[in-house]
Specification:
Helices cover 80% and strands 0% of the residues. With 318 residues, it is mainly alpha-helical.
Length: 318
């Protein structure tokens, strides 16, 4: 209930901010831009988002099977998509609900499934960092802060997939604090478990899957701008979308809400796109990417909860 209220509150704040900005810009201009988008085009944007979700869900399944989990593809999709409901929890810790479902259904502890969550997030960072770097390279103009964000994303992905580095960080952190020995011991064990994902073929395939998924949403942003009469080029559109998504995450706000929207509007404005177009374009792309995913998650969440509890009860009764 608390997470639902948080989600609704964040959504209301963002909507209120966009409405206020649209009102200051002029309702007639904003409505005219929104009218340019047909139902078919809106559906196409949702379809490209589904490409992203589908490919990333497939990657989750591949990693889960590699880790040794006896889970079906349908089960992996149920876990992965259902976890989207918790995207806007602080620090996205709510997405750890996927680990809870796996524990109920397989008996695996959080410690054993932690590497799955870590490597999945690392592959997202790697894919987005690579896409941003390529998009910036092919853009006519750069984005202030684009290169540092790209480097940070790639460094984060590199560290998160290097067991020796993570184990060393945990050891040094324990020595520095002298506290929580059990916690740091679990972190070291989880880090060592990442070695199972280190095969070049697996990592390469995972990165390709991430590239396809995130590029689909970036391309959706490009199409949206074209349909609204603000074609700034596919490379620039993709760069703005990915940069804003990463920058929003760096703010620490749940789901990057607020920060991502502000970054998109600001960068589009710098490209000469008026507020009457940048505001609705930002609102639409966030609805068809972030909030669409959350909607899918809210639909599947109770189903995943019911399925995992039923499985847990069956195991206990036996």
């Amino acid at each position: 209930m608390r997470d639902t209220l948080l989600l609704l509150g964040l959504f209301a704040l963002v909507v209120a901010g966009l409405i206020g900005a649209a009102a200051a810009t002029g309702w007639d201009e904003t409505k005219a831009q929104l009218a340019k988008l047909s139902l078919l085009q809106f559906t196409a944007l949702l379809g490209l988002s589904l490409v992203n979700y589908g490919f990333r869900g497939l990657r989750w399944h591949v990693f889960a099977r590699k880790l040794g989990l006896s889970v079906t593809l349908l089960g992996s999709f149920r876990h992965y998509f259902g976890g989207f409901a918790m995207t806007v929890t602080p620090g996205r810790v709510g997405e750890l609900v996927r680990m809870r479902w796996i524990r109920r259904e397989t008996g695996w502890t959080f410690e054993r499934t932690a590497p799955l969550v870590l490597v999945d997030r690392a592959m997202d960072l790697a894919a987005m960092g690579m896409i941003l770097g390529l998009a910036l390279a092919f853009s006519a103009t750069g984005i202030a802060g684009g290169v540092p964000v790209t480097i940070l994303a790639l460094i984060g992905a590199f560290i998160a997939t290097r067991p020796a580095i993570l184990e060393r960080i945990a050891t040094l952190s324990h020595r520095a604090t002298g506290r929580l020995p059990r916690l740091f011991a679990k972190v070291r064990r989880a880090a060592r478990s990442l070695k199972i994902f280190s095969a070049p073929g697996l990592m390469g395939g995972a990165v390709v899957i991430g590239l396809i998924g995130w590029a689909a949403e970036g391309y959706a942003f490009h199409l949206l701008l074209v349909w609204m009469g603000a074609d700034i080029g596919v490379a620039k559109a993709v760069a703005i979308f990915v940069f804003a998504t990463l920058a929003g995450g760096l703010t620490g706000a749940p789901g990057g809400v607020g920060g991502a929207e502000a970054a998109m509007v600001a960068l589009l404005t710098l490209e000469g796109v008026g507020l009457e177009t940048s505001l609705p374009a930002t609102a639409i792309i966030r609805v068809t990417t972030l909030w669409f995913a959350i909607g899918i998650g809210l639909f599947l969440f109770p189903l995943a909860e019911k399925h995992s509890k039923r499985h847990e009860n069956a195991v206990e009764n036996n």
